[in-house]
Amino acid sequence: MREKLYRGWWYAVWREDGRTHRRALRTQDHDAAKRALKDYAASLAAPKDTVAGIYAAYLADKGTERARWAWVRLEPHFGHMRPDQIGRPASRAYRAARETEGAGVGTIHTEMTYLRAALRWHDKATPAVVELPRKPAPKSRHITREEYDRLVDAAKSAHVRLFIILALATAGRMAAVLELKWEQVDLVAGIVRLGDGTRMRKGRATVPLTTRAVAAMAEAATARTSEYVIEWGGGKVGKIRKGFAAAAEAAGLPWVTPHVLRHTAAVWMAERGVPMAEIGQFLGHSDERTTYRIYARFSPHYLRGAASALE
Questions:
Q1: Which of 9, 103, 177, 290 has an alpha carbon 20 to 30 Å from 81's alpha carbon atom?
Q2: Which CATH architecture has domain 145-298?
Q3: Residue limits of the Tyr recombinase domain (predicted)?
Q4: Ramachandran region of residue 88, left (φ > 0), alpha (ψ -120 to 50) or beta?
Q5: Contact predicate 132/112, CB 8 Å
Q6: Where in the chain do CATH 1.10.443.10 domains reside?
Q7: Least trusted range by pLDDT, from 67-81, 93-107, 191-205, 215-229
């Protein structure tokens, strides 16, 4: 089995019973096609009645990078089980094991949400009972504009500095920014298309760029040696946390993580009175209520009507 390009889209192609078969991998990106092909092959090889087989099929059909990362943690605990063997005891044992490894409740919640989604995708009436830990309250930490400038200036490496600028300008998750390729960027129009090309999710087809981001990317474009926007040594940057942490420490902001920049972007928009619907679309939220629950309190118009009733 191999991947093959047909009219700009990648397919899995193989020979069986003297005939050539193909299956759409639903992407125009070659790297994404390789990952999707691996997922599809795993879905064919794994026992269909085990969680491993079900999750492999789920990844092949609807999987995302985050779902793949979650499976790395989930597989040793649940891969050998059948759905009917997953109940509250197994769920609680997984949480305890992950907490021992140092994982936070929010991370564990996300991982188990993917497990539940895969099992329900396979069978809406699945006998599995996936008990999710109580989701932690959203973190409200964000940085000021002065702190952001300090963070940018503290970045010693060009690729870390560019990442910091893009992470705030796009409000993108760390993985999305690191996966960004030059073919997804239009510097003339000042826009960037987030995602790996598999499918457009949550209204994030394009994101307008700030003047600072356009200038930084234009500078990086003149010296690029890779198809990836964030590059090091002529190749893709797989991890940015170490370089980012060094910049945060140097800026006197050791608690700041890449995700704080995404949160900061939303807070700044809310503080300027940007409607929650627009903020939600920029962040890629599928439900406006999520945006409102987290960011409405930062808006200057929040509860203004309630306060006026007290005049």
A1: 103
A2: Orthogonal Bundle (1.10)
A3: 138-308
A4: alpha
A5: yes
A6: 145-298
A7: 191-205
